[in-house]
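Sequence decides. Consider this:

===
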Amino acid sequence: MPISRDVRRRAAAEPDRPALVGRSGTVGYGELAARAERRAETLAASGVAAGHAVVCADPDPADLLAAVVAADLLEAAAVVADADWPDAVREPAAASARALVDRHGTAVSLVVFTSGSTGTPRPVARTRRSWTFSFPTFSALTGVGAQDTVLVPGRLSGSLFLYGALHALTVGAAVHALPSWSPADAARACESCTAVHLVPSMLTELLDRLGPSAGRLRTVVCGGAHLDPGVRAKAAAAGMEVVDYYGAAELSFVAIRRPGLPPDRLRPFPEVDVDVRDGVIWARGPYLALGLDRDPDGFATVGDHGVRHDDGTLSVHGRGDAAITTGGATVLAEAVEHVLRQVPGVAEVACVGTPHERLGQVVAAVVEPRPGCAPTLAELRAAAAVGLAATDRPRLWYAVDRLPRTPGGKVPRAEVHAGLRDGSLGARVLT
């Protein structure tokens, strides 16, 4: 992967050039490269070699990025996990990532995670080309380059934010990484940052904090969900150029909005072919993850819905009811349901996304208790805390005497969602 190559080249030419900045101080490219080399030496001494998996879960962004560079120096696969995952989440996630690396060997450069259907984050393997091949095109489309200080306001275990940080280091920019999303901290960072990676709900909050002045911020790269035209207009009035795109951890970039297009239209990302079949978006190109199921023509999908227009543009309508987008993270309902079904007293459970002003959606769990032994809210929350990442845990909890079923015995989430909205489900708030 060019990450380690480019970091070392920059370190040799401009060792004092800032690689990471923020409240904890500045780390130059020389220091970042030195940290990575020391870590690579330690890993090599422990037996790590090309084709092995290296779990990178450091809470400090500089240490985590040094770990990723170190793994790349050894041609090992950097497995980027969340430092706050409980053991019950982290250990099986790491095991599944190692199994994936064992299967594909030295072809794997990077492993990120997305929600899985069993409660364990599902690993997504990247080749050395599947992300970094897009870096020059991304630079050309966004204008983000060596002159920028790039704000990455979310945890680097999220693929959207990790991509932003690694792209910045490759082009020689400085990364201002926040340990987690904070509108106040992000607004303060905009006093010195010129570009930012975020999702629409974050942009809304950031604009509210910034007011009419955007500080030095000039470029907003926005992914993960549909961007409201009013938010786009507010950003433009503050002097920001918004570049929004559609993609997924498994597919990487699929489509991007370019100047002159209507707010709901995107063009396929260069080198990517897009097809819409029965309302479902399929993509083919050089950025697809390793091991992803593809059709005979090389197309893959994550189940997102959309429309392909006669002029070749794409409108994205979102994923089916099995996925919930909250704060830029995609949560699969099955993952949450799987964990909650293990709680004594739970007969059935359905998880849906309910609207939230700041996060877009939050996870709501609707529990059908077993007769005579209903679980308490404390028991449900405790199970979620042990078995799920923080982003996947329900924020709203309900109980209902009986969840609806289809003739095949499945719980129709769309019906549950509608019943919560209009009150016909008869759900009671758990307290």
Remarks:
- The mean pLDDT is 90.
- Residues 109 and 411 are 39 Å apart (CA to CA).
- Residues 1-131 form a domain with the Rossmann fold fold (CATH 3.40.50.980).
- The first strand starts at residue 18 and ends at 21.
